[in-house]
């Protein structure tokens, strides 16, 4: 509910995006990104928002204040509820009744450059295990290597993951997959290549088949037929990143069998031409 509530309270307080950004000590462009759902604020920014709006952090991220009848009731209940005083306390966790449908509340940690453009953080193989614990930790994300790919445009949040293994051949082990953050898992279309971050499987690169509505699972397929598809429970999933590009130092190996076939066809054509002239 962060983007919806941010727009609601900004308008209730009669603030422009620039004015709200000044009060939160962030760039105006970030307010636009938060309201459009292209990025999510880090925890310290959420705390500032809750204090500014005079509500609890829990209410900010779980209650739809745009439904004004509900908002009035919630405000009465929260009159004596203090906003979260410090980032990183146990009060930061919230209940999530919609998780089984893939509509889990996820606070995404991001980094920006000096011009407030979002970076692409790289998760190398050696950091893969740590990412399972640090994916929502702002300090952990800030320590990852960063780069930018202007060709990806400004729509969406991107992260890069180095993959291992041969399950997605011809994309080789060691390739870096650049993925766009998927906020609503229900939007993932069958067959979409994605980086899936989960508690049990870690970080894997697979084609995803969406079974959230009927079975609360995702079916993961490898491009390499040697590997069998398998299901993963939505409760186990932490993040999904739709693959948009890849970076590799390994060039694709030419299919020599096709080259030989083309050569045979060419020889036959030459022989037919010779016979016609005879």
The strand line-up of the biggest sheet is 2-1-3-4-9-5-6-7-8
The arrangement of helices and strands along the chain is HHHHHHEHHEEEEEHEEEH
Task: State the end-to-end CA separation.
Answer: 81 Å
| DSSP E strands, number | 9
Structural summary, described in words:
This protein is an alpha+beta fold and 278 residues long. It folds into two domains: 94 residues, Orthogonal Bundle (434 Repressor (Amino-terminal Domain)), CATH 1.10.260; 128 residues, Umud Fragment, subunit A. Helix content is 33%, strand content 19%. It has a nine-stranded mixed β-sheet with strand order 2-1-3-4-9-5-6-7-8. A hairpin with a 3-residue loop joins strand 5 and strand 6. Helix 2 packs across helix 3. The longest helix has 22 residues.
